[in-house]
């Protein structure tokens, strides 16, 4: 019997697990996929929003501000890749400037440091902008982050403090009993006194398992370009367009914490929570929008296209509540933007609601707010690299040439508190395969190292999700 079962281990489930780890509780996490952060957290814009967009007084506005403030400290403590960056909402005409003024007023109401810039001021802080830009809203409170590392780091802390992470554990149904709930999963039944529904795009379906039909999934897919690092150096800001007549914020252009450039997303109804197809027509519109913002973008340096699905619902605000049809379930649903920015605050609210629902929260005096160190070979000085290689020669073997990732880093990733079992899982831990050739050179070697270190046949090593096998056996 667990005290709490968290359904879903994206950034919201991870933040909730991180917060619960501070208490003397027996916690389990049921994740549908074979790794953490494999849904919306894996495929988004990777931006910590300043907080000038949400309507003042909403949960989104309040928790966005609280979330980014706490994240600044947590990313330092857990060594998560993170970089403060300015943001601009650019205007091309009088209608756009009216939207800029509205966002400025929202920003002030939400406590954000914002100002309205003239045409000359906007081009002074971001020279790559189109000459047609006539003004902008500016803030220095945004940041870019490695979103899957953020979620993984918080989950690692939870696991170190005793949480039971169950992967490949899709929840099929939830049975209600007088003093607990039973989740029937693909990885066995789990009994828990309380359940936190942090299932992202699947949250409305989890709610329906206990009779809550109010939340309807309206998930929206968005597609992106990822460009090589030569393009990432062209801009020094997160660049947004003004919201259109329907409130759609449109495409953005932004550097990433790894030095690449992303352009996207669009928005259309997703046929399914895992509808991750990219479409030429959509990508063409995204490409044109990016060039409208920054005419010097060279799409010949595109190295990847991808899509993510936003967990939107029929309700405009975050859904953070004790489920009205089941007092032992907490709903943390509708976590579209600014969900990543708000995650730590949302997790804290989830813990408070568990207390209100009857869970006794006694602080754990032995709580360890740390995770094993992460060695990023490329970031070390030549002297540090030489000393590390002398200690462990595997760090002298470059596996991923594009990103300068060593065998030592890959082996270390495979022996962390949460073990990646796929080629893409390793890629998310240490960037082997994320460079210009997108794994064309290094993925067979990564495949081999996974097999060797985890003691599993090479034909059982998946590309990403369970069953996405790359090879079937030897030909000779």
How would you describe this structure to a colleague?
By secondary structure, this protein is an alpha+beta fold. Helices cover 31% and strands 23% of the residues. The chain has 13 helices and 20 strands. It has helices at 11-20, 59-77, 94-110, 119-125, 147-160, 203-208, 229-232, 280-293, 339-357, 382-391, 407-413, 423-430, 443-454; strands at 2-7, 27-30, 47-48, 82-91, 114-118, 135-145, 164-166, 171-176, 181-185, 188-197, 220-227, 237-241, 252-255, 261-264, 268-269, 302-310, 319-322, 329-333, 398-400, 405-406. Helix 1 packs across helix 9 and helix 2 (59-77) packs across helix 9 (339-357). It starts with a strand and ends in a 22-residue tail after the last helix.
Tell me the number of strands. 20
Question: What CATH architecture label of the largest domain applies?
Answer: 3-Layer(bba) Sandwich
CATH class of the largest domain: Alpha Beta
| Low-confidence runs | none
- Helix proportion: 25-40%
Largest sheet: 10 strands, mixed
Inertia-based shape: globular
């Amino acid at each position: 019997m667990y005290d709490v079962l968290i359904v879903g281990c994206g950034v919201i489930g991870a933040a909730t697990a991180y917060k619960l780890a501070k208490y003397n509780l027996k916690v389990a996490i049921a994740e549908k996929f074979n790794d953490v952060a494999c849904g919306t957290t894996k495929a988004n814009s990777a931006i910590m929003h300043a907080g000038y967009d949400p309507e003042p007084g909403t949960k989104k506005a309040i928790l966005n501000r609280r979330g980014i403030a706490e994240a600044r400290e947590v990313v330092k403590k857990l060594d998560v890749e993170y970089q403060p960056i300015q943001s601009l909402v650019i205007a091309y005409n009088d209608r756009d400037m009216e939207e800029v003024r509205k966002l400025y007023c929202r920003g002030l109401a939400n406590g954000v440091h914002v100002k309205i810039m003239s045409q000359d001021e906007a081009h002074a802080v971001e020279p790559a902008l189109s000459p047609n830009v006539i003004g902008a809203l500016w803030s220095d409170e945004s940041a870019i982050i490695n979103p899957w590392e953020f979620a993984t780091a918080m989950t690692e802390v939870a696991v170190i403090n005793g949480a039971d992470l169950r992967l490949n554990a899709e929840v099929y149904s939830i049975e209600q009993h007088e003093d607990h709930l039973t989740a029937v999963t693909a990885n066995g039944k789990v009994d828990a006194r309380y359940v936190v529904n942090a299932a992202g795009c699947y949250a409305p379906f989890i709610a329906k398992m206990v009779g809550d039909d109010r939340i309807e999934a309206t998930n929206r897919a968005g597609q992106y370009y990822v460009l090589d690092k030569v393009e990432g150096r062209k801009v020094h800001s997160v660049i947004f367009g003004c919201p259109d007549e329907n409130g759609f914020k449109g495409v953005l252009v932004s550097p990433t914490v790894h030095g690449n450039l992303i352009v996207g997303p669009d928005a259309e109804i997703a046929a399914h929570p895992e509808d991750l197809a990219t479409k030429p027509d959509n990508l063409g519109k995204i490409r044109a929008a990016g060039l409208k913002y920054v005419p010097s973008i060279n799409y010949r340096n595109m190295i990847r296209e991808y899509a993510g699905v936003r967990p939107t619902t029929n309700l405009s605000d975050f859904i953070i509540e004790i489920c009205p049809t089941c007092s032992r379930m907490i709903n943390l649903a509708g976590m579209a933007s600014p969900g990543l920015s708000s995650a730590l605050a949302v997790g804290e609210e989830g813990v408070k609601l568990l207390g209100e629902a009857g869970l006794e929260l006694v602080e754990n005096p032995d709580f360890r707010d740390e995770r094993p160190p992460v060695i990023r070979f490329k970031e070390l000085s030549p002297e540090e690299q030489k000393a590390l290689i002398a200690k462990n020669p595997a760090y002298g073997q470059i596996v991923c040439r594009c990103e300068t990732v060593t065998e030592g880093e890959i082996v270390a990733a495979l022996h962390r508190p949460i073990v990646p079992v796929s080629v893409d899982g390793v890629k998310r831990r240490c960037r082997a395969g994320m460079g210009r050739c997108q794994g064309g050179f290094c993925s067979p070697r990564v495949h081999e190292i996974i097999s060797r270190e985890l003691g599993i046949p090479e034909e059982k090593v998946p590309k990403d999700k369970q069953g996405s096998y790359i090879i079937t056996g030897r030909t000779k």
